[in-house]
């Protein structure tokens, strides 16, 4: 049985790929495609915009009330509206939008009391395996290893550092007893910018069309261990989001993560 899916942020690059790959999977029927008020493509067929042929679903500035699940890859400022809509209509939600501030995170936590909700800074299966491994590696290597996180993304990405880089840092801090986020050093400059013991360096690169590269460098005198994840295309995030959406339907209310979806906990 195909599941009814609505996509928020449907006119964006990620939204379009979600629609296309959901249709191609044969597991979903697109029943809603939403984007911002005033978007120039409002009213156009979402399937044509996504390159998969007509779906008879026009791009709208609102989400329908009856899908089986919603996937949101929009902007942080729109996240609150999606959360409130899904709360009101008891719709499971996969929230892939990164850069949520404290207010939106609080709304998400409240929403999860009434609906099943997945919030993830990265939907890639491989990246979530790295999330599960990085803290263990840092703890095993011990305090003599300096830790630096370097994330690279395309020139259009707004938030920095990436949500995934911050999640990597959180995992390291939880496993090693560091104080997050106070231990983070965001870049370095000046005549005396030597690293301080116990800190984690955080560096953001924005260039060209890089999809996403995250490197965790653990280095001491004599050797370096580097854990790295490279996304070759946005499709890896879409595959994870669709897998999460299929898993989330019929779950009890609560705040879930990709680790739950993948059985990594």
Characterization of this structure:
- The protein is of the alpha/beta class and 265 residues long.
- The chain has two domains: 3-119 and 234-262, 3-Layer(aba) Sandwich (Rossmann fold), CATH 3.40.50.720; 125-231, Dihydrodipicolinate Reductase, domain 2, CATH 3.30.360.
- The protein has helices at 13-25, 46-50, 76-89, 102-111, 125-141, 163-176, 235-248, 258-262; strands spanning 3-8, 28-34, 59-60, 69-72, 93-95, 116-119, 146-153, 184-186, 200-206, 212-220, 223-231, 254-256.
- It is elongated, with a radius of gyration of 19 Å.
- The two termini are 29 Å apart.
- The model has no long low-confidence stretch (mean pLDDT 95).
């Amino acid at each position: 049985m195909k599941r009814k899916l609505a996509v928020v942020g449907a006119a964006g690059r990620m939204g379009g790929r979600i629609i296309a790959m959901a249709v191609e999977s044969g597991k979903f029927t697109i029943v809603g495609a939403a984007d911002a008020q005033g978007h120039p493509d409002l009213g156009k067929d979402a399937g044509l915009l996504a390159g998969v042929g007509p779906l008879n679903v026009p791009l709208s500035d609102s989400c329908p009330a009856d899908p089986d699940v919603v996937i949101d890859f929009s902007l942080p400022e729109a996240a609150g509206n999606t959360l409130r809509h899904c709360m009101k209509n008891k719709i499971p939600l996969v929230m892939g939008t990164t850069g949520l501030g404290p207010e939106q995170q609080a709304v998400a936590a409240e929403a999860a009391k009434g609906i099943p909700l997945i919030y993830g800074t990265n939907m890639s299966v491989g990246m979530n395996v790295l999330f599960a491994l990085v803290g263990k590696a840092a703890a095993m290597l011990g305090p003599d290893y300096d830790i630096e996180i370097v994330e690279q993304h395309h020139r259009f990405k707004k938030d920095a550092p990436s949500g995934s880089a911050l999640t990597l840092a959180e995992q390291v801090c939880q496993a090693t007893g560091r104080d997050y986020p106070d231990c983070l050093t965001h870049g370095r400059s000046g005549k005396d910018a030597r690293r301080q013991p116990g800190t984690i360096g955080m560096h953001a690169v924005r260039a060209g069309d890089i999809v996403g590269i995250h490197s965790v460098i653990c280095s001491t005198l004599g050797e370096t261990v580097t854990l790295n994840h490279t996304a070759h295309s946005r499709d890896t995030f879409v595959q994870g989001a669709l897998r999460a959406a299929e898993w989330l339907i019929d779950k009890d209310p609560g705040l879930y993560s990709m680790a739950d979806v993948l059985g990594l906990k």
